[in-house]
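Methods — Computational structure assignment.
A single polypeptide chain was analysed. Its primary sequence is given first, followed by the predicted tertiary structure written as structure tokens.
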Amino acid sequence: MQTPAKRRLAILVADYLTVNVGWLGFNVIRYFTLPYLAGNNLLNFLCYPSLLIEQVCVPLFVLLLYAVSGIYNRSTSIYRSRVDETVNAAVVAFVAMIAVYFAVLVNDNIPERLASYELMASLWLCLFVPTAVVRLILTTRSNNFSRRLGNGLRTVVVGATDVTAGKIAKIMASSPKTGLSVTACLNCDEEPAPASIGGVPVTATADALESCRSLNAQAVIVLPADRSPRHTGELLNRLYGLDVPIFVTPDALSLMAVRPRLNSVVAEPIVDITNANLSPVAMNLKRIGDVVCSALALVVLSPVLAAIALAVKLDSRGPVLYRQKRIGYHKKPFRIIKFRTMVTDAETEGPALSVTDDPRVTRVGRVLRKYRLDELPQFWNVLTGDMSLVGPRPEREYFIQRIIERVPSYSLIHQVRPGITSWGMVKYGYASNVDEMIERLAYDLLYIENLSLGVDLKILFHTIRTVAGGKGL
């Protein structure tokens, strides 16, 4: 069975080979276009040390541009749009043409401006045409293969009952358009259900998560049936731990008061809730910005980090850094790192949020929390990929369970990496109880609905103002 990962690998290898061929072909055109090269032998020209270096570096550079464009990003479908892939090849080839021309070709002795334009057009065609043609062939063959019955992603439907049987049948009929091949149906509610739907048996289970794992599901579709929003939210929160695409029908999202974003207008409508509504290129630029900024911050702020560490150590007994298990992107747990601001053994009676004038907070801790300096070590969490500079604040599983009981849409927080700062932190600040966490959550859900690089920059700007004004508490 072909998987999205294999598809991405095939496209990457094909792109590397076609870009190499395209660059080699351009150098042949370059040889015959520039008169001052006429006295040289073509083979000798192609074997110039500088051209051999270019033959290695230029394809790698173009591949880097393709990676940034998002063409190799993880996909929730085995289908690829031939139009999208062709447009992607055209745009990246144009950007590469401009960059390569001014980095490599600008020093060529080009006698006429017209010849310069001709070389630029030739370079664009050489970088675009081979890649676009090979992609078209690969994508067409792959899509045709995937349309055959049973060649889609192994998909488990959760919520199979007599009420949802008709909807499941429509989803199965849409398999050639969605790439989701339903291989199992689960009934988790002890409601009446048929023995099978469309030839797929219906299995009763009390643990959808473990059942999906045992079935090696590559995708999951959750149908709400008569579930309450709370039940649906709890189920989605558990299923996020599978780290596979999770789809719901628009009526399920309406129960959670979230605006649906449909993937297709021709198939039975289902909504992917494992990825935020952000373009692949924007997502990659956000991650690149996270890596660059966090690395620079750790280097530039190293004297400040050292001074704070010394102050924490001298102020009270205990470790300098405080590590705590939090739930992050796609429900993956990680250890968040902060400067310790409380006394050791501050939670001997169980998880407890900090409150105003909390006696557990140390003298240095109060200053650190006021200016949010205790969060600085989290630049390491950003660098390693557990967090982002901007995103909903990560919480502990203990509090997540209590929030979901009242706000099922909290599950959607796991669509993005948690952040050092967030819209909720800027507008609301620290929360001292679950009620306040829920109030802050409204801003974080709005952030996910309006996610963009521009919004991130605004949040960072307001965070700097908040920190500079000492309004962290």
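Note: Residues 262-266 have pLDDT under 50 and may be disordered.
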